[in-house]
Each structure stands twice: as structure tokens, then as C-alpha cells.
Amino acid sequence: MSTILLVIIYISFISLGLPDSILGSAWPMMHLELNVPVSYAGLATMIVAGGTIISSLFSERLIKRFGTGKVTAISVLMTALGLIGTYMVPGFWGICLLGIPLGLGAGAVDSALNNFVALHYEAKHMNWLHCFWGVGATAGPFIMSFWLLRESGWRMGYATIGLIQGILVICLFVTLPLWKKMEKQEENKESEKSNTRISELLEMRGAKPALIAFFCYCGVELTTGLWGSTFLVDTLGLSAEKAAKWVSIYYLGITVGRLLAGFLAIKLNNIKMMRLGQIICLLGVILLGMPFTSYCQLTGLMLIGLGCAPIYPAMLHETPQRFGKEQSQGIMGIQMACAYVGSTFIPPVFGFLAKGMSFKIMPVFLMIFVVLMFICSEMVNRGTKKPNNI
């Protein structure tokens, strides 16, 4: 039973990654057809991000009321309808409107699945699941590029991924009884407990530094991914094509790193995996700032990707250990919200600073957040009470 459900969750993570990277791939053609400035992509992504933050914060209430299976199925359904709706939308404001269900669906399912896996499966699966998310995020642009070369263009790209999500919705509704069986043992305990207020969750020991760590991690990952190519062009004089290839290697490092981290997690606990990733990430940032040879910066970029790989899955999987199973979903939702806030706002802040100063400040900027993430992680590790490993 748990094996079948795990397969569905793996497929869900691939499906989760598919829509995350397609707007950027399609936007050069979309903004021309929709007759809006290229900068409007930022508004569309902000609306989606806002939806993910809101649904993450309220995920505990939804899951306690309806269960993880139903919340996941309905959330993916919202995502599928948003994607298929984008296929039919006549103008830009329709895309903004459809960004609401896309964001709300993504945030709820992300929080639900991460907490479910943290409670019911080993750490290796958390790493491999996020590796599968990378597979989906990589496949999305390929699907979109296939249709961009044809007359149907970006609309069919959205429709295709929407239909893939629709197939997943059917699988999720069919397997709802399996989800209920997995959660049945905890159902009575959960029904006795009322929803914990966000203010109460924030007062839990270690909660605030944990949230800062999530905020910092996503800021580092997204800032490197968004501005890494510009940094290489501006500081090393690489061509845009070569710089783009190196940023692809950065993302490949995250995906392959999570595959390898799954095997390492069999021997190392979550805390050791976090520390290992943070040390590698810190080494990568240091090399990124070395002025001696371009190979230092390029190796640094790759190491940042490898270092990032185990950190996020380990922090997620450690949540029930840090704060207890009863409060894990509430904390998970807030953690996901803080992660989305970091990924939404830190990259633009760096872009603003780099425009006024220089892209050479990127290693220093990243260093601040990596060090802050390490300090906050250690504060949580030492300040929270940990029961036996799940």
C-alpha cells in the first residue's frame, strides 16, 4: 500500500516541477502575442507567489479538515485548470487571474506532500522526491520549446502540461482510500486537537530561526539561478551562451546532488546532511569570489548547486523531529511560506543592489545569507528537543 502511494507521490513531484519553469521559457513569445511589456512577467510571477504563500499558511487547517489526499488532489486540479485556462485566455489580465489558482494549488500541495513524506517515509525519499521535482522543472521547458517551434505555440505548451496534471488528478482521486488508510492511525489524535494559531507556532522553541533558515536557503538558490549567468558575463566576460550553459550545470548539480544525497541519507542523519550541504555551499561561494582564474568561479557555481542539493530536503524532513508530529503540518506550512517569500523577494533585491553597485558583489551577498542560514540552522539544532529518528 505505502509503495503504491509512494509511486504516486514521486509522479506528483515530477508534475509539481513541470509548470514552475514554463513561464520563463514561453514569455519571449507570450508578451509579443499579448501585446504587453516584457517586464510584466514579474507581475504574473508575483501573483502566483502570493497565492503559494497564502495557501501554505492555511495548509494545516485544510489538511486537518479534508486530509492530505483530498487537499493534494484538489490542489493539483486547481493547477490543471489554471494551466488549461491559460491555453484559452485572450489577454494578459486573464493570465494574472489564472495565476491565483496556480499559486493556491501549488502552495497547498507542496506543504501537504512534504509533511506527509516527512512523517511517513525515510529521509532518502525526501531527497529523491525533490530530485524528481528537478526532473519535472527540466522537462517543462523542453515540452514548451517543442510547441514554440510550431504554429500552436505557447498555448499548446500550457495545454499539454495541463493535461498531464489532469491525468495525475484522476490518479490522485482513485488512490484516495490509500491516503486515508495511511492517515487513519493519526486521525483520532488529530481530531482531538484544534488548529494551532500561527502566533502560537511562531512562539515554539526554534521556530523563528528555522523560518529564517528557509528564507535564506531559497534566497541563495534562486538568486544564484537567476543572476548567475549575468554575473559570469559581467565579471568574467563570458558569452551569454557559455554563461547559460554553466547555469544549467548549476541546476544539474542540484538535481544530481539530490539523487546522490538520497543514498548518503541512508548513512547520515538530517542534521549532518544539512551541515555537509552548507559547508559545500559556503566553499562554492568563496570560490565564486576568487579573482585568480575563471575556473574558480565556474567551480564555485557548480559547488553551490551541489551544496544546495541536500539542505532543503533535510530541513523539511527534520521538521517533525524538531517540533513534534502534532505540530509538524502547521510549522511546515509556515516554513514553505517563508521559503516562497525568500525566493520571491531576495533575487529582486540583489538585482536592485547590483544595478546600483556591481554584479561583483554577488559572492558577498550570497555569503551573508549562507552564513545566516548556517547560524540559524545550528540554533534550531541545539535548541529543539529531538525524539528518536522516524
UniProtKB/TrEMBL annotation:
SUPFAM superfamilies: MFS general substrate transporter. One of its GO terms (cellular component) is plasma membrane. Keywords: Membrane, Transmembrane, Transmembrane helix, Transport. Its main location: membrane. Residues 5-381 form the Major facilitator superfamily (MFS) profile domain. It is a multi-pass membrane protein. It is found in: Cell membrane. The chain crosses the membrane at residues 40-59, 71-93, 99-119, 131-150, 156-179, 210-228, 248-266, 273-292, 337-355, 361-380. InterPro entries: MFS, MFS_dom, MFS_trans_sf, MFS_Transporter. GO terms for molecular function: transmembrane transporter activity. Coiled coil: none annotated. The keyword Transmembrane helix applies. It comes from the Bacteria. Belongs to the major facilitator superfamily. This is Major facilitator superfamily MFS_1. It comes from Cellulosilyticum lentocellum (strain ATCC 49066 / DSM 5427 / NCIMB 11756 / RHM5).
